[in-house]
Amino acid sequence: MKAQALIASLFGAASLAVCAAPTDLDTTFGGTGTVITDINGSDFATSVAVQTDGKIVVAGYCVNGAVICVARYSATGVLDATFNTTGMVQTPVNSGNDRALGLAIQGDGKIVVSGACERPIVVFPGAFTVEFCVVRYTTTGALDTSFNGTGIVQVALGGNGFDSGNAVAIQSDGKIVVPGTCADRISSIADICIARFTSTGVLDTTFNATGIVVTAVGSGFEIGQSLTVQPDGKIVVGGSCDSGATQQFCILRYAANGLLDTTFNATGILSFPIGSGSALANSLTLQADGKYVLAGRCSNGANLDFCMARVTTAGALDSTFNSTGKVITVMGGAIDVADKVAIDADGKIVLAGHCEVSTNNFFPCMARYTTVGLLDTTFNTTGTFIASANPGPNVQRGMTLQSDGKIVLVGSTNNNFLVSRYEGSPTPPCRLDIDGDGLVLATTDSLIHARIAIGLSGNAVTNGIGFPVAATRKTWTAIRAYLVASCAMILPP
Hints:
Elements: H1 3-7, E1 34-37, E2 44-50, E3 56-62, E4 67-73, E5 88-91, E6 98-105, E7 111-120, E8 128-137, E9 152-155, E10 161-165, E11 169-170, E12 176-184, E13 190-197, E14 212-215, E15 223-229, E16 235-242, E17 247-254, E18 269-272, E19 279-286, E20 292-299, E21 304-311, E22 326-329, E23 336-343, E24 349-358, E25 361-369, E26 384-386, E27 394-401, E28 407-413, E29 416-422, H2 442-453, H3 459-462, H4 476-487
Antiparallel strand pairs: 1-29, 2-3, 3-4, 4-5, 6-7, 7-8, 8-9, 10-12, 11-12, 12-13, 13-14, 15-16, 16-17, 17-18, 19-20, 20-21, 21-22, 23-24, 24-25, 25-26, 27-28, 28-29
């Protein structure tokens, strides 16, 4: 359809459309924006990912923490009957407690879950160890027998009784990387651990010769909580490291072969305090410019708050981010924890977690920040949000952003899987306000309309226009992207 024919639509009903607020529940999902699923017993969702077809995959544990559980929903929030016929699958790895903590979707659509699984040992009745475990499912929800023959891998990495695979990522070559913790139950000392598996479920011996890397930063309890794999193959882990006095945010970068990358802070490790007490980075993400954003919680001496930091590619705190590289946000409760961090299409930083609204009563909560670390006041006017519409006390643990900007949160409510979808940053409606300053002016918007209508494009559309300071779209690239996405216009580059 030609641009000239579409100009008229800008003056029609579409221009009057009302844009949903970022923190509004998306009512196209389950009718209310929230879906609750009773799988089996006490159910807790920990992680979420969105397939390329828009289906939503959620992993966690059921039967009071004894069984790994995965559910798959349509884009509208209905359990997907093509997934194990019920939309749900339960996987007991051993006879003890098995917990899914990480989730990733391979390029071929297979679903990979990491976690912590108990293994009985012959010491005395009821004795067990906890080990890294990885489970892979086919696209139809069956255990993938091309993965270790059973679809399941369980391995001890170096701890004495408690190893936990807290996240998972898929490399471009199909190898599977799992970070976590290797802990000694007796001494309470724990190190950061990483395991890398081939696509067939075997420990990858090109990774530190054994497929396993154990890193002791300090001498206390340390956790590898999250990771990302860079386009160049380097592996970055975020978590908590022991300083001798308290726990700190820490980030570690490894070469593709599993050795610490000494081009990152000279040692491959950066550990730093945030807040006035212990701090834990629960989540890590990679910006488009290569910088790293860590998010979690830290103590202010009395309560726990949302905490975040940004680190340069060289391994230093980024002073362009809130001047210190660190941001602390008081959400209002005694225990407020950021569990996940993500970057939206505009480069804004979204934190999601759980906040205490009253004693031992938690609700999902979020905060959104500008690229320089300031609270984004276009997000619920304050930059922060605590949910109140979900039924019953609940805890959120996982979060992902859809390609359309919508925010998907998962956790638990009344011992059931809880999946909620918020509007986030939806595509703005088609409006006469082309430059995005909130006004429709003859000298800007009408002039842009006229120039496009006569067939102009590129700089010819914007030359000589004095855009207001408040305008959010001042270049042809930005204007064109808006008109294509919001007004369905077909325009030249």
